[in-house]
Sequence to fold (1019 residues):
Amino acid sequence: MTDHENMRILISAYIDEELPETERQAVEDHLVACEECQRFYRDIRKISSSLKNLNSEPLSPDQEQNIINQIKAVRSREGQGMRRFEHYFPYSAMSTLIICMLVFTVSLRVYMKRNVQTALRDAQEESVPQVAMPPMNAARGRMEEGSALREKANLAVPPSEVPSSQNRLAAGPLEPGEKRKAVMEAVSGPVLGGEVSGEGFLFKGQPPKEETPLGIMKQNEVPVRKDRELREQESLPVFYGESAHKTESWALERLEGKADSRLGDRPMETGALTGHYAADESRVRSLPAAKVMMASPAASMSLTPAIRGDTANGRAGEIYNYTDKGLVPMRPGFMIVEPPKDRDEAYPYYGRIKEENTEEYDRVYENEFLSVLDNPLSTFSIDVDTASYANVRRYLNAGQMPPKDAVRIEEMVNYFVYDYPQPDGDEPFSLVTETAACPWNPAHHLALIGMKAKELSGEEMPASNLVFLIDVSGSMNRPEKLPLLKSALAVMVGRLRPEERISIVTYAGQAGLMLDSTPGYEKERILRAIDRLEAGGSTAGEQGIQLAYRIARQNFIPQGNNRVILATDGDFNVGISSDGDLTRLIEEKRGEGIFLTVLGFGTGNYKDSKMEKLADKGNGNYYYIDTLQEARKVLVSELGSMLFPVAKDVKIQVEFNPSTVQAYRLIGYENRALAKEDFNDDTKDAGELGAGHTVTAFYEIVPAGSSEDHRKTDPLQYMETVVGDSGDLMTVKLRYKELQHDTSRLITRAVPASQAGEPEEVSDNFRFGAAVVEFGLLLRDSAFKGQSSYLDVLQRAKASLEADAWGYRQEFIRLVEKAAVLDSAY
Amino acid sequence: MKRADEELILEFQNGHEDAFEELFRKYKTPVFNFVMRLLRNRADAEDVVAEVFMKLYTHKHSYKPQARFSTWLFTVARNTSISRARVRNRFSSLWVSHGQSDGYEEIPVPDSSPLPPEHLIGRETAVVLQEAVEKLPDDQKEALILREYHNFKYDDIAAIMGCSLENVKILIYRARVRLRQDLPSILMEGQND
Fold:
């Protein structure tokens, strides 16, 4: 080592301030003299500071939750087991904590009994603790502990005393007493007293109690076995078929996101739970915390609930019962054991493992052509949601074709702003119709029905009382979720008027009021609260919703826009309430004048269908937010429309004239269809129209005289259909209620058939809207796509760029180009 | 005033679980990043982090107050990572590395908002730097990571890596010399000496 190198070693340490005074002086002296070493010094400093500035990557929230769950599981076991073990440890050479589970079934009762006997015998015979996990077909693992406990209790437990049915176990103490307690512990392990519901961060609540209530099975000790051992285990009772077993473990690995990495110790969801049904229906829902959802015991077999875990890592999942109340986390004393009345109906998720991607889309059954003679009336509620477009964009930008059912054409069409005229006079909106040849089927016509709500000037706008209900569960801790919302919120706060009020409620385990209702002039305070928002913990949506509504109620502004805005990635671990209860709550509050808007965030765990339904029930809009641009569009630009409704329960009914129209098809609005009677029924809820908002619907029309036959019924025998002599194409009827009224008003507009124009003469609105429809048909690979082509879509979209102040139509063109490439690759 | 880690672990040893919670909050990210940099595989790193905190939870008494808590925890993390790497190597034929996507199965959402150019340069530098660090020999890399990313003093690094202080000094020096050679000239003033 040269002196030069020695000096540089010192320089390196000098930079780290690791040199004693004398050497430091020497380095400084040298640096003054030596230019090369100066350069070295500067470079190293530069490297050092650049390295220090590199961002660290956060642990994914899912993984974090996973760790928390593992620790919770261990903690629950320790709660009893470890504490006792600590006493034993000096005497015992036990190196491994062995856990096990006992499954009780009616049908397997005899079998199980035999195994318990064997296991007890084994345990007594074994003087040396086992290190490896014994096979799981019986409750053997726990037996070692069990035998110790039994000794302590000085009881010989005949296996016949083991409670034989889950019903009895869960139903509560049967015959209190030391004996039974010892049995319980022997067979099921120490009973945990910890929090198992996933609320809060880690250790909410008291440490486990020494005394355990009897007759309660809790899940965390549910034992766990290793996958491979399981497979090798020939004598495994046939709890479920081989294929189901494979599917489950595969799905779990997928759900853990790291199947490969597990190798030696895969988590295995214990499968003793689901009985025969599991074979074909097993699926576990992949909640972010890798929770496992299970059904309650089936009719023929009452079983211990489900479990998943990993002995080595102490991994354990939470357990959910699927009940008529929805998903209910299993709590001590809260196990539902009554068999379902009708399995298929009551337990749609019964014991299933669900794929890793939990995005859910309702199946869209496309509207078909309807004969005008059979169905002269077409009725639907307006839909001003735009979420589907943003979602489609997300897929395409990620290089994937969107799932068909994620493509809702009316939402794509309504994503864009159309240049319809302002309403005149007192009417809250204008109505526009336009007809031309259908671009993808020249034999058909395409009719556009558009409306535009009155734009309000700043003073006219009612004051807003907004309660943001923000999901701050761990899964929101992603750049495209909570941070995105925070940035957009901050921009929105800048636009708040002084008289407006904003509150922030968070939910993550426990609902919390982050910001009590604060007037718009206290922007600083609002911004500080937004800044404090942080994701962590698990989700329980319902309590948060109640709190949010209460705050909204307390700060209710008469004539104002009172609204709860729910921002979530969709994972409601609906702790105590079912979808039905939630819906009822939202509907009830809607009656009180508090509406609900839903903002959906994120990927992978996103319950599209549920969120849309919630927003529908709350008279609100539903937006999917994937980029900051979109967040701003929704929260800032659309503040003027979505937040200021000018009319509610807006319904459209179109009556077609059979003398000019043979059949028609409403494009999109599948989930907004209303019965024809609903149109005049003011109790029937429908869409809301915000100030300045436009709504567009398209009908594809088969003109009279066409050779196509869309009649599905025979002509009536006793009633003669007389078609009136009219040159109208159709009559558009519109019903709406003013915000403060419960009775609707009607607007009627007859559309002459002669209006049908040539494709070249149509307005920009029509041309662009039709292009969006056509794009949707292609993405859906619709049965009605006719001669649609990406090229046509592009051509027509590019010809309609005049009204594109925000660049949304340009973006649309880019998406079409992407889709064209992706689609052709299939 | 925040409590020192050493106080927290003692409290935890005495049964206060919220002390564990605080330690977890504080160390989850550093430990994850440390392990990730050692293993260069997200799925493995996540497993190891889980294991490390599990060990902290279940073996809390193996921490002795003579040591600094962070040093102790990083030693645990290091040892766990090494065991994992061994297992991993043994089964390496079973592995198909998907680079960054390991352990993550969702659709990547590309950032659609264009970044300002200076941002891009900063990003590129970071990538180049990280790549250069990854190419370092394991021991140099580890010492440098502990020093630069985690700000450990040399004696802590020596304790974590189980080597001498002098050794740490030289490892870090060599790592730096090597980085200086590997990094593009635009970033450095010169490596002609």
User: Anything to note?
Assistant: The mean pLDDT of chain A is 67. Chain A touches chain B through 63 residues (CB under 8 Å).
